[in-house]
Amino acid sequence: MLRARGLRKEYGREASLVRAVDQVDLDVPAGETLAVMGPSGCGKSTLLHLLGGLDRPSAGEIWLAGERIDQMSERGMAALRRDAVGFVFQAFHLMDELTAVENIELPALLAGRSPRAARRRAAELLDQVGLADRARHLPSQLSGGQRQRVAIARALANSPLVVLADEPTGNLDSEATLDVLQLFESLHEAGQTLVIVTHDARIAATADRLISMRDGAFVDDTRLTGGTAGNLSALVGLDG
Amino acid sequence: MRSRLLIVSRLAARDLRYRRGETAMLVVAFVAATATLTLGLILHGVISRPYQQTRAATAGPDVEATAFPQRGGPPADRAALASLTPLVRARGVTAHTGPYPVAFAVLHAAGHADAVLAEGRDQAPAAVDQPALTQGSWVRPGGVVLERSFADALGVRAGDRVTLNGRSFLVSGIAVTAALPTSGIGFLGNSSQFPNPGLIWVTRAAAESLATRAHPLGYLLNLKLAKPSGAESFANAYTNGGSYNDNVGNPYLLPWQDISQQDGLLVRNEQRIMLVGSWLLALLALGSVVILVGGRMADQVRRVGLLKAVGGTPVLVAGVLLAEYVVVALVAAVIGLAAGRLAAPLLTSPGAGLLGTAGAPSLTLGAVAEVAGVALGVAAAATFAPAIRAARTSTVRALIDVARSPRRRGLLIALSAWLPVPALLGLRLAARRPRRLAANAISIAVTVSGLVALLFAQASLGAPQLGGTTSGSADPGQFEVGFADVTQRVDQVLLIVTVMLAVLAAVNAIFITQATVRDARHNSAVTRGVGASCQQVAAGLSAAQVLPALAGALAGIPGGIGLFAAANQGGYSGTPPVWWLIAVVLLTVAGVAALTAAPAWAGARRPIAEVLQAEAA
To answer: Are B182 and B126 spatial neighbours (Cβ–Cβ below 8 Å)?
Structure first.
């Protein structure tokens, strides 16, 4: 589904050169939940941005569903982000002046769907994330966990091939973290490909596979047997 | 106290230097407003001087009495002449010349046929109203002297030949007079029978020979009074409700003050346009500063937080912001005063109808204070609210750089869902900041008002000026002489003001776009993150400016008509074709789109990840 070869991202020049991502090779099969862990500044968010077309690599190749995406035009990249990739950010990045349902329907409207179809899909997704009764609430009227669920619903608006989540529970308390993880679990069960960047080992433990990063490079790649089938409540510390 | 002043001045100077482009544009905005205001103030009070010079040089009358008979009567109506005679013996009259016969004729010259008022004069100089020659010599048999502004409009010089009612005459001279208003309106401006003729002088015999039954002789009598300042009351006492024409038995008296007023119309119109224009420009300059300060506040929130975190008081924070713009306003006021003072002589020429000049326009201390006061007032008014808001922002909130929450306009958001993506994004962006939207629309409306007023002036200029025919019609009532000098100069002044308005509106459009781009940085990045292309976001940012520009341009049409009506009290008429107005609206919208395209495109191309990470940090 998602493949990267020799991926590199550099900032600055000469003495001030920083390699945020350094010669990374990656394969994410369809339906897999991959967790990328590492300390702050190790390059995991940059990697996610490259994989999702939010940024362009300095070198290397990225393939999504058999199509090379790193050389796409700006317009092609926009179409990729709109149709094939769904992003979930730590800071939610919802639009303050739009209600929950309006935030969720935005990608569908950008994709050219009719307002009615976009609203129908947004309502379905709100229902799916358990916020049907919060459709007309502004982000400022929602809790952190609810905002993140709205953000996840927005990421799913155009049924993307892969959902990329950057520290999705970083700003949430344990209860909200559990809600989000349960949502990811249901997505995983539905066959959604997920790449989750986190520095929280408890979150990483819910994935099928865990990659550890340090200084822009992969230092470990482990297949987790438990995957998301584990006890989420216990993982996030809400169990007994 | 000294250390506080040092900090304020240092921070203000550094910030201005750091943002040179914005500072330069702000100076441009202030200079345009202050220069125009300076011009308007300088023009005040220079109107009457040229008329007084001409009056002195020509022994101008205190009162001009006219008696014009009805059409179709005898060519020489003795009753008309008799109606003027008693005035010679009226109380207060110390001297007189005339009555002189006046014929209404058709003059052909330089391919034009024009109505003229041919005053029959003696070859000997007159004690009252002896027109001053600027070329050639005074009237003689077979010769004609043309009033200078009329000759200029025709392009005729001494030595040329013209015909009067088909008879050839040599132009023996060109002269000016203070006895009749000549600068454009013509003293028969309100007459439907003889609209706005040119003035010429011939011998008495020639004038009498030019009269016809259709246009019989009229008479002019020049009176000197013992008390010239009482000319208006003298005229009122003896006019008895008469009018310019068809006033046999009831002569019409024109006091010198009325003539002076009509001759000053040119400069007065310029002054009126300049003053109206300068207030419009000041309004736009205020808009520029408000938009710039408001836009910059989004960037300065963190700076304000830092200042407060290291011990800066709210007064210090407000002081820094105020100091920046007050310095800019003062510098711009000095440049504007100098520019206005230098440009004033170009606009104070009295026109060809009068002698002399308006003199060196003077810049009084009061005018300097007024211009500086307006500039400082604009800067203070525009900066006050944001400065107070910044000063009152909580330090923690400022440090985490929390921008003001956008407004929500649910109806517009719902409506926008049905629009193409760029319009969808544009409408939503515009709806976020309704006050900025209004500022943008007002800025464009003010500019378009100026443009529309200019078009109306152009249309008036295009109305019949010189007879415009060579058909040789014998009826002078068919012709009208306008004085291109007046309309052209009013047009030029309107053009200057409109260009300045356009410059300021362009500055505002750029400021507003930059402010919108800054304010929409996060939204644009998120929108691109969920699939909008750079082009769509840039088009959306542009559309956010174009939509209010369209509203402003449409509002500018009635605004311009009102502005023209307010500035045009001289009575020029003319309506531009509708397609001109449509073109103004379309070109304005296209201009705004073009101006905003570059900053919108630059804003839309910022790397998404960089923006989102910065916002999340």
So the answer is: no
- Asked if A107's CB is within 8 angstroms of B609's CB, the reply is no
Q: How far apart are CA A203 and CA B533, in angstroms?
A: 33
Quote the ipTM score.
0.83
| Predicted confidence (pLDDT) at residue B98 exceeds the cutoff of 80 | no
Task: Supply the mean pLDDT for chain B.
Answer: 75
What per-residue confidence (pLDDT) applies to B191? Answer: 43
pLDDT in tens, B491-528: 667 777 777 777 777 877 777 777 778 778 888 888 89
Entry pTM: 0.63
- H helix or E strand, kind and range, residue B376: helix B365-392
The number of beta carbons lying within 10 Å of the beta carbon of residue B515 is 24
CA angle, B47 then B53 then B59, to 5°: 130
Residue pair B116/B106 in contact (Cβ under 8 Å)? The answer is: yes
- Decide if A97 and B529 are in contact by the 8 Å CB cutoff: no
Cβ separation B530–A110 shorter than 8 A:
yes
CA distance A163 to A87: 6
Measured from the Cβ of residue B93, the count of other Cβ atoms closer than 10 Å reads: 17
Selected residue of B530, B608, B612, B615 to mutate for chain A interface (largest A Cβ count, 10 A)? B530
Task: Answer yes or no: is pLDDT of B265 > 80.
Answer: no
Contact check, Cβ <8 Å, B536/A110: yes
Q: Is A133 helix (H, G, I), strand (E, B) or coil?
A: helix
A59 pairs with which residues across the strands?
A8
Each residue of B443-478: pLDDT tens digit?
A: 788 888 878 877 887 776 554 443 444 344 444 444
Confidence tier at B580 by pLDDT (50, 70, 90): confident
Give residue B280's identity as a one-letter amino acid code: L
Distance from CA of A84 to the nearest CA of B (A): 9
Instruction: Identify the band that residue A177 occupies on the pLDDT scale cut at 50, 70 and 90.
Output: confident
Strand partners for B221: B65
B417, B523, B529 ranked by CB distance to A81: nearest: B529
Q: Quick check: B527 contacting A, CB < 8 Å?
A: yes
Q: Note the residue count of chain A.
A: 240
B241–A contact, CB cutoff 8 A: no
Numbered residues of chain A with Cβ closer than 8 Å to any chain B Cβ:
45-46, 49, 54-55, 74-75, 78-79, 81-83, 87, 89-91, 93-98, 102, 105-107, 109-112, 115, 118-119, 138, 140, 154, 157-158
CB pairs under 8 A between A and B: 93
Chain B residues near residue A122 by CB distance under 8 angstroms: none
Query: By the CB < 8 Å criterion, does B535 face chain A?
Result: yes
Residues of A in contact with B406 (CB under 8 A): 96-97
Pick from A88, A105, A83: which is nearest to A158 by CA? A83
